[in-house]
Design a protein that fits this description.
This protein has 169 residues and is mainly α. It has nine helices and no strands.
């Protein structure tokens, strides 16, 4: 079971008063750090500037993630990983095979200190928690939103993120 599937199961369990639809306890040991980072990451990938909550934020980077939304969404983020020497990992997330792990130190190569701090603040976390959580969450999120090994057009990605976020409401 993928990390994103586990997170969805945990969120569904929380929405059902701690129980999943199959009667088992929700959460499944999913880290609260990953749960806090998920909406921030989704909004960042869909080039939305605001990530406080699960709803859509203002377009054009006017919200709390300002410069992060301007990274170019999923394509821009993948380009950053490639330029910084993590192309093999990024390609594995997009591809149809196993996802290569990303060390937490890679996050410092991709995001500036200010960007990481913005992400951490949006998620209500410390910078170290955000760094560690991003290194764990990004591979699975990218994998989920690149079905068939292809990076979708931005409008299609935004629509997919919107559909995904509707599962939380």
């Amino acid at each position: 079971m993928g990390l994103l599937t586990q997170i969805l199961g945990g969120l569904a369990g929380n929405a059902l008063g701690g129980r999943r639809s199959d009667g088992s306890r929700g959460g499944g040991g999913i880290s609260p750090i990953l749960m806090a980072l998920l909406p921030v990451v989704l909004n960042m990938l869909s080039q939305r500037g605001h990530a406080r909550g699960l709803g859509p934020g203002p377009a054009g980077g006017a919200g709390g993630l300002g410069g992060l939304a301007g990274m170019g969404g999923l394509g821009g983020l993948l380009e950053q990983f490639t330029q910084k020497g993590y192309g093999s990992q990024a390609n594995s997330w997009v591809g149809t095979g196993a996802n290569e792990a990303l060390p937490p130190t890679a996050i410092d190569d991709i995001f500036s200190r200010d960007q990481l701090h913005q992400i951490a603040q949006q998620a209500g976390l410390g910078d170290d928690e955000a760094r560690s959580g991003l290194s764990e969450l990004l591979p699975d999120v990218v994998d989920h939103f690149t079905p068939g090994g292809q990076v979708p057009e931005q409008s299609q990605l935004t629509s997919s993120v919107d559909d995904f976020l509707r599962q939380f409401r």
